[in-house]
Structure formats: C-alpha cells, structure tokens
Design brief:
- The complex is a heterodimer of chains A (264) and B (470).
- Chain A has 264 residues and is α/β, with parallel strands linked by helices.
- Chain A folds into 2 domains: 5-96 and 217-263, FAD/NAD(P)-binding domain (3-Layer(bba) Sandwich); 102-210, 3-Layer(bba) Sandwich (FAD/NAD(P)-binding domain), CATH 3.50.50.60.
- Chain A is built from 6 helices and 19 strands.
- Chain B is α+β, with helices and mostly antiparallel strands.
- Chain B is globular, with a radius of gyration of 22 Å.
- In chain B, a hairpin with a 4-residue loop joins β21 and β22.
- Chain B is 29% helix and 24% strand.
- Chain B folds into 3 domains: 4-47 and 152-220 and 318-357, FAD/NAD(P)-binding domain, CATH 3.50.50; 91-144 and 224-314, D-Amino Acid Oxidase, Chain A, domain 2, CATH 3.30.9; 384-453, Arc Repressor Mutant, subunit A (Orthogonal Bundle), CATH 1.10.10.
- The two termini of chain B are 34 Å apart.
- Classes of the chains: A alpha/beta (264), B alpha+beta (470).
- Chains A and B meet through β5, β6 and α4 of A and β18 and α14 of B.
Chain lengths: 264, 470
C-alpha cells in the first residue's frame, strides 16, 4: 500500500502519473485551471482522451485548484471558496515549464512596459485583440512558434531572435546567435539592442516577448528545490512533444512504483 | 480659466517623505493636497531601495541622525498600525580584510556618538549571529536595531492614511510654475491652479527644480543610480540578518539584505547621473554586485537570481534638508539623501512643527484616523483555511509563486489610493515578485486590473507609465 498520492498538474506528465499510479492506490489530481491539458490545451484530442480515461479509472480531480504548501503527508490546496489540506503520502509535481525571465535570459537596460512572458502573451492574444504591430520574440521553441502564429494571425509583424542557431521559420525575419540584450524605452519598449555575428544590432518593436530558456515552474512551498522530502518532480526540460512527455512521465511513475515495492 | 482650489499646504512629491508629511498633516485641521507627476505614489527611489530602516547612517551632528534616532524605536508600533511588513533583524557589518578592519573602530565610535547601539564582534561571534557570512571574516560590528521594511507598502500606507483623513492625492499632475504673492503661493500644474499658504518640497531628485520654480534657494540635487539583484526566497529563508559591507570614508558599499517578502536584495551601487529617468541596468555593474555579495555571503553564489533593477535616489549638496527656504518664507524643503524611509516618521513630525513656526495655525483633529485595516495575506497567514470565510476569493490564487489571491489583488485595486496598473498591484500585493516574474500570473493580474480600471486588454496599464498593448 502506498496510500493516497497527489499529483499536481493535469498536462501530459501529470495525467500520465495519475493513470499509472491509480492502479495501485487512490490519486488526487490537482490542476490550476478548470480543464485538463496543461500547456497542450484542453482542445487537444489526445489530452481529452487522457482526461476521460483518468476519470473513468477513478482519479479524483481537483480542477481550478492551486497547490500552496507541502508538508510531508499533506498538501494545502486553494480553490475558489475553499482552502484545505489534502492528505497524501507522496506529491508528484508536474507543474510544467515556464519561459526564462528577463534575468534568466540576461536582458539589461530599461524596464519599460511591453516586455511580456510568452505564456502571458499567448493568453492575451487568445482573446483575438491585436495588442502589438511589431513584435520581437526572444527565444526559440514551442512558445516562440505559437506566439509567432498568434501575432501573425492578428496582422502583426514578428522578428524572431534566438541565442543559438535555431531560428523560427514562420517569423517575418529570424536572427540567430544573438547575445548581450538591452531593452530601450522609458515608458513602453521602443527597441531591443543586442549583438549578433559580432555586430551591434537595434530592432524597433512595440513588444518584446520572452519565449526561450524553459525552466520548471516551482511554486509549492516545501517543494521548491530538489530534492524535497516526499516529492517526485516530473518536469523534464528536454522532452518536447505531448506524447513524449506522457511516455516519460509514465516510465518515471512506473519506476517509482517498482522502487516502492522494493523498499516494502 | 481653470478653477482655483485653496489649500493650507500643497505637498509636492508622492515618495515616502511627501506621503509621510501628508499623513501627518492629515491629522490636523489643515487643508492639504499632495501632487505627484507619476500615476502612482511610491515610484522612483521610494520603490527602488533596499528596504532597510536603518539605526545608523551618518555623522552624529546631522539633523538626519536625530531624525533616524527619533524614528527607529517607533517602527514596530507604526508598521503594526499601518499594516506594513517590518522585521527588526539586526545587521552585521563585516570586515574581510585588514584594510576593512582598520575602519571598524572609527565606525563604531561614530555609531556610539550617534547614540545608537552597536558592538564589536569577533569572527566567531559574527558567524554565530549569521552563519551564512563568509568564514574569511576577520571581525565585525553588530547593530541590533537595524530592520527591514517594505518601503513601498509604507509609502502607500502613508498616502492611504492621508487620503482617508481628507488629503487630496493628485496623481499624474505635473507642477509647471509656482507664483508667489505675500503669504500665498499659486501652484500651477498641467491640470489645475492650486492656491496655498504653504508649499512642501518633497520632490526628491527634482527638489532643486521645484525650489527654482518657487524662486527659492538655488541648490543642487541630482540622481544617484543604484542597481540591485533580487535572490529567490528559497535562499532568503536561510538568511536571518542584514549583512553590510564595511563603510569606508568614500562608500557605504553594497549589501546583502533579506526583504520582508522573503527574497534577498544585493546592492546598491552608486553612480551619479544627470538624467533622472535613466534607470537602466548594465551587465558589468550587476556582475560586480554579485561578486561583491559572494565575498560577504558565499552561498549567494548558488542562489537563484530572479530579477535585476535600478532606481535613482536623490543626492546633493546637503545630506539632508528639512527647513524653511531662506528666500521664500512659505516654502519648506523636506528632502533627504538615501535615508528617506528611515527618517520618515520623525521628518513628518518636524515638518509640521516647521510649518507651525512659519505660521500654519492648525489644530490636531481629535477624531483623525490613525490606523489602517490589516489585509490578511494568504502566504503568511497562520490560519489560511479560515480566510475563505472572510472572502471566498482568498481561495482563488492568481500569483502562484507568492500565493497572492484575487481577494488581495482586489484590495490592491480598491481604496482611496488604488493600484491602476499591473505594477501597482505588484507594489501593493506582491503578485509578480516571485521567481517566475509574472509568467503565470500577469495575464490574470492584467485582467483584474483592466476590470477595476475600466480598460480593455490593450489599454490596461502594465506600469505607472506604459500600457500592455501599444
């Protein structure tokens, strides 16, 4: 018996853990938003199917709930109108990834309005309101691709800038191997200065979207840094697609279960 | 012709000193307006400082020192009354070299001459006081009355108290001219003409400009830029004291300061500027701050750095100027170099007595509000489960890193001096202070701010100056 396990995050990783673990004991799945899917999105057929499967196998869902504090054997969870402890022997934390911050990426210079994390930009652009006309997307990878698409759909122009040699194909312009970033603008952002191919460059823009350097989300007190007692972190940095993240998390849960049996 | 309002005192500047003076005046019968050119109080130096309520700063002969001494014992009472985070942690000044050690005795002498508690500490004692300090420490000075405060919440609280007692807080209003007639000033802004008996100049880095507009003394005030690095709370929870560099005759050095939010600030540096709006950080200075902090507290090297920023504090020909102008009898200067937060309670009291000496005949209001309602904070609450009984929105957490709920954010967006931007919400509630720097919560905060300010998603303000959309 492993007792109740709580999984935080209902993206591909969290759903995989819940499905693997629920065969061996009760599982509560805590998710910040009101839907399953995480960053893949609730419209995705694979994610919907995983959600339905988890429900039919008896996973307890706590949607629209946010995990606040982990103390070994219980998790403090807040949801609208209710804050309470969920008893659990182990916390599987699958809180996903976030883009690197201005500090992570090493942006100096001014701190004007218009510097926006990609996760926020995507949320805002989803409302189909054109916010910007001339956007610099800094960083490559899935957030960058999504922002480029969303801005393009609303008629904006996008320049993609990356620190390595991987460009963003769908952008209007793509600059690679850039470094030494500096934001310029006293009220709103006006330019991004940087160095590429040894030469100083200046790009005019009305938004700078931070879309690179993925980092694990860590925001549960008591489960902020590895290792944390009673916590299994399921946030691989280099596993990109939904199915790969699902497979990796399933494997990790299955290995953990084996180790538990070995210990028993 | 714009309409003309009549006041007893117009305070120019919505930083910590301007709002403190306004709060003190608000408990008298004076009719008071506070004018601030930015869209929020607590911008500039009152937003960007290390948040230390110092016990000791400069020479014993300075007026600044007597104001620090008068303010320091009051912090527990004031911050409890105004719902401002404060912790009297004590500070350790660390000597890492023979050269550093040479300066400690004279610093201790000055501390004692100021009437402030301080004692020499051996290396062993220093490491007992703060085990994270470098084991290369040779000796140190312990100052038990140093504390950390949230300078932004303090400034906002002064402004809210002032407004609650009837002070007009006039934001986004720039003083263009000041016309003098005997016993009267006409403060002409881009929005109104404010007729007043007295003008308080609390304009910080722009104090010289305001004095000039009023025809007052010519003095120099200029911006001194300080850069800072913020370390994550996972490190902050381990640090229990403020760690100071050794003061030398030329610099007070860059420090390691726990904040009331649980993070740690490294800095500041000092670079004199001409452009008060230059708040850019640069890589070399930030690297220097990080290297310097490693010498004092080596484990800062492995702590996650979550943010860098810069702010400009006022510098000038005098460390402190709180007195009537020599040329314009109804103009009172309230400016300070570096220690505005630390002197603010006593400076406000002194400003009132200077104004009274100058002829401000006002009485203390017997029923003035002196206490602000405390907003419970989900992150620090000892009983989080009961918070939803008070407001169900405590259960709706918007900022995942700092555990700031929609209830707290709505509080920040309401009241007499509400947040009008995403940054204003951050300043009042802490939403966005954490390690992800808004990548999870900024959309939610922006939505709530848009709702409260009646703006659409493009026109909602991200900072006091700039909108989210273009």
């Amino acid at each position: 018996m492993i007792g109740r396990v709580v999984v935080v995050g209902a993206g591909p990783s969290g759903l995989a853990c819940a499905l693997e673990l629920v065969a061996h004991g009760p599982v509560t799945l805590v998710e910040r938003t009101p839907v399953v899917g995480g960053e893949v999105g609730w419209r995705d057929p694979f994610m919907r199917q995983l959600g339905e499967k988890a429900a039919s196998r008896g996973v307890d869902f706590a949607l629209g709930s946010i995990a606040l504090r982990w103390e070994v054997s219980r998790l403090l969870v807040a949801s609208p109108g209710r804050i309470d402890w969920i008893p659990a022997s182990t916390l599987f934390f699958a809180g996903g990834l976030r883009p690197g911050t201005a500090k992570d990426v090493g942006i100096h210079g001014d701190r004007p309005a218009g510097i926006i994390p990609a996760t926020v930009a995507l949320h805002l652009l989803e409302a189909d309101v054109p916010l910007w006309t001339n956007v610099v997307v800094l960083g490559s990878g899935k957030w960058a691709d999504h922002v480029v698409d969303a801005v393009g759909k609303l008629g904006g122009r996008v320049t993609a800038v990356s620190v390595d040699s991987s460009g963003t194909k769908t952008a209007d312009k793509s600059i690679t191997n850039a470094h030494s970033f500096r934001a310029v603008g006293r009220s709103r952002i006006e330019y991004l200065d940087f160095v590429a191919d040894g030469l100083p460059e200046r790009l005019a823009c009305d938004a700078l979207i931070l879309a690179g350097d993925p980092r694990p989300n860590r925001n549960v007190e008591g489960a902020l840094i590895e290792p944390a007692s009673g916590v299994v972190f399921v946030q691989p940095l280099n596993v990109i697609t939904a199915t790969d993240r699902y497979d990796a998390a399933r494997q990790l849960s299955s290995d953990w279960l084996l180790a538990q049996r070995g210990n028993a | 012709m714009m309409k003309s309002d009549v006041f007893d005192v117009v305070v120019i500047g919505g930083g910590v000193l301007g709002t403190a003076v306004a709060a003190r005046l608000s408990s008298t019968s004076a009719r008071v307006a506070l004018v601030e050119s930015e869209a929020d109080v607590a911008e500039h130096a009152s937003k960007g400082n290390a948040g230390v309520a110092v016990s000791y700063y400069g020479a014993p002969s300075l007026q600044q020192t007597s104001l620090i001494n008068a303010s320091n014992p009051l912090w527990e009472e004031i911050t409890a009354r105004l719902d401002v985070p404060y912790r009297r942690l004590g500070g350790v000044m660390v000597a890492l070299s023979e050269h550093d050690e040479d300066h400690l005795p004279s610093t201790l002498e000055e501390i004692h001459a100021c009437g402030v508690r301080g004692e020499m500490a051996t290396a062993t004692r220093v490491l007992e006081l703060e085990p994270l300090i470098s084991n290369k420490v040779r000796s140190g000075l312990f100052m038990p009355d140093e504390g950390v405060i949230d300078p932004i919440r303090l400034t906002v609280a002064y402004a809210v108290l002032a407004a609650t007692n009837g002070v007009q807080i006039r934001l986004s209003e720039t003083v263009l001219r000041i016309e003098q007639s005997p016993g009267r000033s006409l403060v002409i802004t881009d929005k109104a003409r404010l007729e007043t008996r007295f003008v308080v100049n609390a304009a910080g880095v722009r104090a010289a400009h305001i004095s000039q507009l009023a025809g007052g003394e010519a003095f120099t005030s200029y911006p001194r830029k300080g850069q800072y690095v913020v370390l994550d709370r996972s490190f902050g929870s381990q640090l229990s004291r403020i760690v100071f560099s050794t003061h030398t005759p030329t610099t007070k050095g860059s420090n390691v300061v726990p904040t009331t939010h649980g993070s740690v600030l490294l800095g500041p540096t000092a670079t004199d500027l001409e452009d008060a709006d230059d708040r850019a950080t640069d890589a070399e200075t930030i690297d220097w701050i990080i290297d310097n902090a490693k010498l004092l507290v080596p484990s800062t090297a492995s702590a996650p750095q979550i943010k860098t920023f810069a702010a400009n504090r006022p510098a000038g020909d005098e460390a402190h100027r709180l007195r009537r102008d020599e040329l314009v009898p109804n103009l009172v200067h309230v400016t300070d170099r570096s220690a505005g937060v630390s002197i603010s309670p006593a400076a406000a009291e002194l400003a009132l007595s200077v104004l009274r000496d100058a002829g401000l005949d006002v009485l203390d209001k017997p029923h003035a509000i002196t206490q602000l309602p405390a907003v419970p904070r989900l992150r620090t609450s000892g009983d989080p489960i009961s918070l939803t009984d008070r407001d169900p929105l405590y259960g709706q957490v918007i900022c995942a890193c700092e555990h700031v709920s929609a209830a707290e954010i709505n509080q920040a967006l309401s009241g007499p001096v509400p947040a009008i931007s995403v940054d204003g919400v951050r300043k009042r509630s802490g939403a966005g202070y954490g390690r992800c720097q808004g990548s999870l919560c900024m959309a939610g905060v922006s939505f709530l701010t848009a709702m409260a300010t009646g703006k659409g998603p493009a026109h909602v303000k991200q900072t006091a100056r700039g909108t989210v959309g273009s």
